[in-house]
Amino acid sequence: MKSIGAKTVKAQMSILSRSSATPTPEPSSLTPSKSPPTSKRHPEKAIFPNNSEPFIRELNSTFASLLLPAIKPLFARTAEILSPVSGKFFTEARSVYVPLPWGVEHDEDWDPLEKMYNTVYEWYQKTEGKWIMGDAFSYADITVASSLLWYKRVVKEDEWARISSWNGGKWVQLLADVEQECNLA
């Protein structure tokens, strides 16, 4: 991250506290950060290029709304790889938003995820570059790639092969492009 000019910035953030009396975390502080947006601190490598922040925020919201119906098998795999205590907490906390049961046993559990990525693929196809905003790498691409990286880390090999095959291998290529763009490779 230093290669793109990122520095450690001390900022206030929300803290989750958990006592034995409350099984779910309660925010103890919701003080917003007083730091200026990243694009103002690092204008040479803006993740909201060309005043695109409103567009990208809307895209991020749409992406999340598409992901929610598709997330059960991913939550199930995530809970499986966590320690028993963490898996229990993860399941309890997420089941408030995504009701149980979560499963990965049936192909139809994966259909909503594939449908979501077909929609996202259409977004990429409407531009003339490799990114959602054409030739400009942005937070929108980070959103898509970070979810893909999560899947790659938690799903089984055959499940990742399935995701990797969607849309002609677009998602494997996107991860490689983001790794290169962010100097992670």
Automatic annotation (TrEMBL):
InterPro entries: Glutathione-S-Trfase_C_sf, GST_UstS-like_C
Stretches with biased composition (Low complexity): 17-38
Domain Glutathione S-transferase UstS-like C-terminal: 65-179
Source species, domain of life: Eukaryota
Region annotated Disordered, chain positions: 1-47
Gene3D superfamilies: 1.20.1050.10
Name assigned to this protein: Glutathione S-transferase UstS-like C-terminal domain-containing protein
Species name: Suillus luteus UH-Slu-Lm8-n1
Lineage: Eukaryota, Fungi, Dikarya, Basidiomycota, Agaricomycotina
